[in-house]
Each structure stands twice: as structure tokens, then as C-alpha cells.
């Protein structure tokens, strides 16, 4: 079969600060190609809708799959599926991906029959089975993870080994369009999959059933050696949970004499527990470290169920700085923030040397706050669920909330990328431009055209074309966690970590059950 794999367009935040290669889609493409299918990829982050239609006309795919990792992309995906169905009545259309896995039946209903099915869970594990079932006229509901309007197939399954499928990077055009900060261009790679913690605002653990699996250091080394881009974004939800694994990869990189620059994300408590791992990685090219602090006070941390003290967070920041790493942190702005709270946050952020990103509390299907948040949603428009719009009631009038939010973001942006910092960034930008890389240079000047209260208010004023189903009535009662999982929890055996690390995880998460 000929399969066209499609990644939807950029979202608000990714129009400025980063544009990452669609690694998950490349893995699905790789798995399908391993089963003998002819596969092409189109990424609408760097191409346009006319390019999509041109590719269909040229390639004439038998099947088309869309990556649905973000709720805000749902309207675009559904519209493209409807028009594709009109033009190609017999094509096999399906969607997979993280966010879609939690709302499969809702999306199918909105598509008015245009979409054949949703493939929940790990697509690289089951895409081959799905294409085989369609090609041979078998019942799709025999495939693990399949959802149609007629019913659900067996539960999703994991790929047997993360070494089993490699991403089909060669199928992706315009590879030099992908970047994150000054890593321009940058490729993405996966060392581990899943997260053993259980933060209330996150759906990584509910998607993977609190599992944590790793690829072998040898395979990772081979993959890094084949990647041409000088920058590498490590996509793991929490990097180097298991110290031995991180050190083994570092040894492999040293043995192969691989020279790259790395960006990773981790938790403050993991950094402090595995200091030697991050020190070794600094030696082999780690430049950026992103720490998800989420809050700057104990009450905020408690709300997000992160059992780590503020002192520990600040120690982690100091240690990362001592390694001469560029530190980026994330804070979550709650709709309840007033002007005074925004001002406190601004002053705190200006006092520290680190890059600070501000996102907005957003209840997503698959998270505990989606089930338990007692505040009602003010909108069900899929487009606005992008962590840059407020979808719950704000204490301030909505426009004032956005004015304070964008003011805060603008001050932080100017701190690192404005005129005051131009002497530090201009040299980097010019050096990249001389190599033909202008992603970072463009980013410096793009902020005001994307982050704008008028634009955000206009987004709210636009009549929703596709709305999420009514949210369950919010309560403060305990959520039945079993109802949240895409891949059901398999307990200790699903986590490839040693017993001491398992104990550490249990001590730093709030719940005591899977």
C-alpha cells in the first residue's frame, strides 16, 4: 500500500520558539515501511495545504494517516479529512497520536464519517496490523487500539522493544527547518518512552500507564551517528530517570566520538539525584536543560502534585548553572492570577538568569485536572486548548488577563532576545545565517506578531466550528485513575529502572497506587 503520513500545522508557541521534527510520525512511517508499504511524509509545519493536495495528486495514496498529538490541531485535521474524503472517496483515513487517543470517539463523531478509525496508543506498534487488516478486508476492530463508530478493538499494545523501529528520517523534506532556540538546525531523538510520575496537569503517565522503557545505548549511538544535524533535542518526558542508562549512552557517544549539541528536559529532583550523569553529559555536548518547575511556591506545587520542595528546585537551578548550562524553566499561569501575582512572577523571573516560559493552566482530557477541576470551562473550542489561551474563568477580566500574561512574556522575551540582549544573541544569529540557518534569527523578531492580546481575544470571538463534548461536572473528589489510562498500568514490571530508582519515584510522587 501507499501510505501518506501527515503532521498538522504549527501552534501558537511553536510559531516562535521552536519547530521540532515530527519524530512520532517518522516512527510510524518507519514501522509501516518495515512491513513493506510505500510511505511518504508531509509536515504542514513547514509546508502548506496546497502542498498537501499536490502530494496527494502525485503520490495517489491508498491510505492517509494524521498525527493528532495536540488538541488545537483537531479542527484542521477534521477539515482536511472531510475534504480528502470528498476528493478520494475510497482512501483509508485514520488518525493516531497522543491527544487523539483520549478523545477518539468524539473526533470520529465530528468527522461525519470522513475518518475510518482512530488508532489509540503507540502507533508504531500497531500501524502494520491496521494496514494489513484494511488491505485484506478484515475487521478493523480486531486490531489493538482501534476505535470506530461501531466499537472498540482490543486494548492498545506496546511495541516489544524501542530498538525495533527506527524513525524514517529520510522521508522528511526540509530538514533544516527544525530548530529549538539556538540549536538550528536540530533533530529529535528518543532515549526513553513514558513517565513513572503522576502530575495532575500531565497526560504522559496516563497515556503510557506509568511505564518507563528505554532504548539500548548501542542503538542510540548508531542513530546519533547517522543524524546529520548538529543540534539534538532529546524528546524524553523526563531525561535520565535511570542514571545507569544515561551513563551508558554517554559512554557510547564518547566511544563513537560523536560531536553534537544537546537540549533535554528533566525534573529538578532527578537532576539533583543524578548529578554525575548531567556533569558527564555537559562534557559531551549538553547545552540546554529545561526544568519544569511549574510553580514558585509550595501551594502551586501541591496543586500540580509535585512532591518536591522549593528549596530543592532552587538547588537544582544552582547546580545546572554551576555546570554552565543554559537553563530554561516553565511556570504555569493559573487563571486565578491577579495583577499583583503577575507582578510578583515578573520580578522573580527578572532576578534569575534563566530563561522562563509561561504557559496557562489547561485541563486536557487524560489529565486528572480534566476530571477534577471544579471551575467550569469558558470555551470548548478545540483551537484554544494550546496552553496559551485561558479556557477556564479568569479572576481578571479576560482581556486584562491576556494583557498581563503577554506583558510578562514580553518582559521575559526581551530579557533574553530583545535589544538589551542583542550583543549576546546577534553573534549566534549571524553565525547561523552564514551557514544558511535563519530559524533562530527570524524567531528574535517574531514575538509581537504572534503573542498579542488583540489576537487572543479575536480567537475567543471566532465562532467555534468544532467543540469538545461537555466536560464532566468538576468536583474536588478523588478521581478514578483507572478511567484515565490509554495503555493500562502494568505496575513495577513496566518500568525499566532499578529498585532504588523505583523507590525514589514513589517517594517523589503524590499517589501511592498505579
TrEMBL record:
Ranges of residues in domain B12-binding: 8-141
Keywords: Iron, Iron-sulfur, Metal-binding, Methyltransferase, S-adenosyl-L-methionine, Transferase
Keyword Transit peptide among record annotations: no
Protein's UniProt name: Hopanoid C-3 methylase HpnR
PANTHER family recorded: ANAEROBIC MAGNESIUM-PROTOPORPHYRIN IX MONOMETHYL ESTER CYCLASE-RELATED (PTHR43409), BLL1977 PROTEIN (PTHR43409:SF7)
InterPro entries noted in UniProt: Aldolase_TIM, BchE-like, Cobalamin-bd, Cobalamin-bd_sf, Elp3/MiaA/NifB-like_rSAM, HpnR_B12_rSAM, Methyltransferase_Class_B, rSAM
Keyword Metal-binding carried by entry: yes
Stretches for region Disordered: 467-514
Bias type Basic and acidic residues, positions: 467-483, 496-514
NCBIfam families, sorted: HpnR_B12_rSAM
